[in-house]
Amino acid sequence: MLSLIYVSTATSRLPLAAVEAMADRAAARNAQVGITGMLAYNGESFMQLLEGDGDAVLATMRRIERDTRHGDINYVRQEIRYQRECPDWSMKTLLAPLSRMGSAALFTKSLPRSTDLDTRILFTSFASTVRPDIVAKIEERRQRVVLADMPVAANV
Ligand SMILES: Cc1cc2nc3c(=O)[nH]c(=O)nc-3n(C[C@H](O)[C@H](O)[C@H](O)COP(=O)(O)O)c2cc1C
């Protein structure tokens, strides 16, 4: 099984909702060809893990390379592994940059349990690298989501 990780830079500042929608479509397509993995976005760059049959991963990667929503692709890993790290995810999306004390530990916990240590380190350090204005934006969104989840009485 091929396990591939790359980082890339978003061409424009993609709204988080757009990244979520893109990952949902990607997940549906990946499921058809037996690809699993995860996609992290820190407001500026992507890090993606793709795992599955070598031909399927490479064919998907060729399409991803042509996608104009990002560029400057750098491969971090391309190797044979014997077990999937994200067996339950056609594409898990991780949108959390690390800005608060203890948030690195939280982020690491949100990674699938079967993620190997080297992959945890790669994704956690990627998610930790983020510009302060982007942290503020994502924090704002997180607050809105928390408020929306609260009972109506607590919202007024
Ligand atoms: C950062 C990023 C990650 C992507 N991940 C996937 C993916 O895992 N699987 C997938 O099929 N498409 C993924 N896409 C979308 C593909 O690039 C492409 O738009 C989609 O597969 C449709 O390709 P087509 O228009 O050539 O049919 C991703 C795009 C970006 C920008």
Mean pLDDT: 87
Q: Tell me the CATH topology.
A: Alpha-Beta Plaits
Number of helices: 6
Helix content: 40-55%
Spatial ordering of strands, largest sheet: 4-1-3-2-5
Strand residue content: 15-25%
CATH hierarchy: architecture: 2-Layer Sandwich
The biggest sheet, with number of strands, parallel, antiparallel or mixed sense and barrel status, is: 5 strands, mixed
CATH class: Alpha Beta
Structural topology:
Elements: E1 2-10, H1 16-33, E2 36-41, E3 45-52, H2 54-66, E4 70-80, E5 92-94, H3 103-110, H4 117-128, H5 132-149, H6 152-155
Parallel strand pairs: 2-5
Antiparallel strand pairs: 1-3, 1-4, 2-3
Bound molecules: flavin mononucleotide.
Description:
It is built from 6 helices and 5 strands, in the order βαββαββαααα. It is an alpha+beta fold. It is globular and about 45 Å long. The protein binds flavin mononucleotide (FMN). The site of flavin mononucleotide (FMN) has 15 residues, from helix 1, strand 3 and helix 2.
